[in-house]
Structures are given as C-alpha cells and as structure tokens.
Design goal:
Length: 213
C-alpha cells in the first residue's frame, strides 16, 4: 500500500514515518509513503495556496487549484488511490474504518487541511472526509498521522500474528485490553498480580479476559 500525504508541512511527517513500526513496515516493503508539499502546487510566482473566503469572513481558505493539482499528481503514480481529506466535520475515524482501509488495500492520498478549511469544490476529488474526534486542531497533519498509523499496523504482516487476532475483538470499536506488567515483580511495594507469575496459562487467560476494559 502506498500512502501519499499532501500537506503544507511535509517535514512534520518525516520523523514519525521513518521511526519504529512504520519504518519497519516500509523496509519490509509492506507500505511505502510519499510526502507531497502543497506549496509546490501553489499559484503564481508566490506559490499562493490560500486566499480570503468568498463572501467575506475571517481566516484563509485553501484554494482549489493547488489541492486538485496535488491530488492529480499523486494519482499519476496511484490511479486507484482513495482520497481522504482530514477535516473536523468529517466522519469520526474508528478502528473499523482503519480495518476497512487496510482490508481494501487501496493506495491512499491523504490531504491535510489548514486555516479555515478547503474550498468546497475540492470535495469532488475526495472520496471520504475524516475527523479524528470532536475537537478542532490547527491542521490535518496530526489526524493524517493517526489515520496512517492505524491503517498501516493492520496491513497483514506488519504486526505479529497474535496481535492481528486480537484486533478482531476491537471490531466493536472499543479497544478492550487487559492491563500489562513487566519486570520487576515489585516496585515501591506495588506488586504484579500473583496469577501472572503463576505459569498457569489457563488461569492467566481467564484473568486477562476478566480484566479487559
Ligand atoms: N483538522 C482540524 N481538526 C481536525 C480533526 N479533529 N480531525 C481531522 N482533521 C482536522
């Protein structure tokens, strides 16, 4: 799966995408990414990407030409990609959505909004508008990272087999997990539950099931 991210701040993705699980997934050839600088598609000598809202009002709106030009450029290498726009008015992103995108396996083009939003006309080039929650961020960069991370970890082969089975139980969109502990067995008087050190796998499984929240 190839994920292309269109942003005015492509640099903010570099560290995250080149670290940890996403790096391993990329190195294993399970996923590739490309960071696309929206500024490069700006209009005129000043590479303008935003302008005042038609009809007046505060703030700046991302212009339709640069956004559509960037999407079209991304489509040259991923003609069947699904185009996602990050916006607080979108559908709230859930585990089942991440699973759906991973299962579908289509390349993704993720557009990060800024300022007061996008010129509405870009929506003709967008398949889905996605919000990561009921709050307004300064831009779509963090939401794009959230969506990319949640999808990539579900691509078959990215995680170990055990973990992927566990994901099935998240299909109700509740991330039900049991508490985890590691060494030392006691820290400042706080002990790991005895059952976890008992070596009795049946009891441990029962305890974990009963302590999911
Ligand atoms: N852009 C600004 N806030 C956002 C949110 N909550 N989700 C997605 N994109 C956003």
């Amino acid at each position: 799966m190839k994920i292309q991210v269109i942003s005015l701040f492509p640099k903010v993705f570099e560290e995250y995408f080149s670290t940890s699980m996403l790096r391993k997934a990329a190195e294993a050839g399970l996923f590739e990414y490309e960071l696309v600088d929206l500024r490069g598609f700006g209009v005129g000598p000043r590479k303008q990407v935003d302008d005042t809202p038609a009809g007046g009002g505060d703030g700046m709106v991302l212009m339709v030409e640069p956004v559509v030009a960037a999407i079209e450029k991304c489509k040259e290498s991923s003609p069947n990609a699904k185009v996602l726009a990050m916006t607080p008015r979108g559908q709230t992103f859930k585990q089942s959505d991440a699973q759906g995108l991973a299962d579908e396996g289509r390349d993704l083009i993720i557009i990060c909004g800024r300022y007061e939003g996008f010129d509405e006309r870009i929506m003709d080039w967008v398949d889905e508008e996605i919000s990561i929650g009921n709050y307004v961020l300064t831009g779509g960069e963090l939401p794009a990272m959230v969506v990319a991370d949640a999808v990539v970890r579900l691509i078959p082969g990215v995680l170990g087999g055990d973990q992927s089975a566990e994901d099935e139980s998240f299909s109700d969109d509740k991330t039900r997990e049991h508490p985890q502990y590691t060494k030392p067995a006691e820290f400042r008087g706080k002990k790991i539950p005895d059952v976890l050190l008992s070596g009795d796998h049946a009891k441990i499984a029962k305890w974990r099931e009963e302590n999911k929240s």
